[in-house]
Amino acid sequence: MEATIHVPPNVQARFYSVRLLPYAIKVKVEQELNRFQKAGVITSVEFPDWAAPVVPVVKSNGSLRICGDYTVIVNALDLTHAYQQLHLSLKSQKYATINTSKGIFYYERLRFGISLAPGICQCTTETLLKNFLVVVAYIDDLLVTGSNKEQHLQNFDRVMTHLKYAAATLKRSKNVFLTPSVECLGQVIDNNGLHPSQEKVCAIQEAPEPTNVSELKSVLGLINT
């Protein structure tokens, strides 16, 4: 049997330096590498484009498991009042008029309640960050990734500089930095992949049994979001 790793063609190759190991661990790692090489598990390469640092894991029986560090670190950022960071054109302001006890006002910024607002905000955010392959954006939520702490901090610095240049502001209380796990849209993203959050699972399990078409649609919407 053969397994294939599919990598999108636009993903840039990453090569990371060797990590220093304690001498006692280093000897065991090299012994295990020799065993792997003799067994045909690994092959020596001189000039690779990709390389992950070795992560030795000592098992309960004292033996060693050699892993590559392919973990992902995430920063979760939240744009402050994302809609209101977008100016409405003069010809659009008349469509965002509100009538209040203090008078009638045009909105100069995009506001909630306009049916096109989510799409406009999403398109604007994606356009703003289109040159950053390490960022995933959903309206006002931004996820910045990196293969290790050093790479992650470099990516984060570039994204923050770009956001500052664009005069975009973030909500400090909702930002999460250097986390191995983050929840977004009812899903948890971590080193094990993508899986439903416990809160969402509980909501589905505790949802009442539907008794009509309307309730059935609500349950299906809960499951599929």
From TrEMBL:
<dbReference type="InterPro" id="IPR043128">
    <property type="entry name" value="Rev_trsase/Diguanyl_cyclase"/>
</dbReference>
<dbReference type="InterPro" id="IPR000477">
    <property type="entry name" value="RT_dom"/>
</dbReference>
<dbReference type="InterPro" id="IPR043502">
    <property type="entry name" value="DNA/RNA_pol_sf"/>
</dbReference>
<dbReference type="Pfam" id="PF00078">
    <property type="entry name" value="RVT_1"/>
</dbReference>
<protein>
    <recommendedName>
        <fullName>Reverse transcriptase domain-containing protein</fullName>
    </recommendedName>
</protein>
<feature type="domain" description="Reverse transcriptase">
    <location>
        <begin position="74"/>
        <end position="188"/>
    </location>
</feature>
<dbReference type="InterPro" id="IPR050951">
    <property type="entry name" value="Retrovirus_Pol_polyprotein"/>
</dbReference>
